[in-house]
TrEMBL record:
Species of the source: Streptomyces finlayi
SUPFAM superfamilies: C-terminal effector domain of the bipartite response regulators, CheY-like
Designated name of the protein: DNA-binding response regulator
PANTHER family for the chain: TRANSCRIPTIONAL REGULATORY PROTEIN NARL-RELATED, TWO-COMPONENT RESPONSE REGULATOR
A Pfam family matched in the record: Response_reg
Biological-process GO terms, alphabetical: phosphorelay signal transduction system; regulation of DNA-templated transcription
Gene3D superfamilies the UniProt entry points to: 3.40.50.2300
Modified residues (4-aspartylphosphate): 55
Record-annotated HTH luxR-type domain positions: 148-213
Domain Response regulatory, chain residue ranges per copy: 4-122
Amino acid sequence: MTIRVLLADDQTLVRAAFAVLVESARDMEVVGQAGTGREAVALAASARADVVVMDIRMPDLDGIAATRLIAADEDLAGVRVLVLTTYDTDEHIMAALRAGASGFLVKDTHPAVLLDGIRTVAAGESLLSPGPTARLIARALRAPEAPSTGGPEGLSGREREVLALVARGLNNTEVAEALGLSPLTAKTHVSRIMGKLGARDRAQLVIVGYESGLVVPGGG
């Protein structure tokens, strides 16, 4: 299966460099390039992209607002957004996750990491490393907003355990190992939790885990 990638960045040279990189991967193709957030939203629909690589700082409509519009469009339910940021824009990451982004990377990341990141979010996973995620969420919780998903009150004890591990950044295999489950069972639990909470993907489960207190920032 070829992953259809839309590149959204206001810098033409950056888009061109990313396009060369993406096209070098046998399992990907660039289906569009956008210089503004509004163009990204329009192209996400017309180009039927699987993954939008979205810069945060763009004219007309920033990447967070564009991500929110894409995530809210039922016709674009299969589109995943991978946000790109720089070290000095960490404060925007939680806003991007709340808006519906499936993960984030810094712009100076290794090319192979970017390609793997695209594959990860295309597969429905979230791209969240535990350390930076905990730090960013801890910062966001100092000025919390209303959660965009339901709380964990309706989850079983096992599902709450799974949610806590997912919120720490563990994948299905790691969750299975931690709880003595099979990977398939762990995956089933995650799918059920997402359904109960109305979460778009695992990135939103991370938010619920921290906002509900199941995971304490900096608590390991």
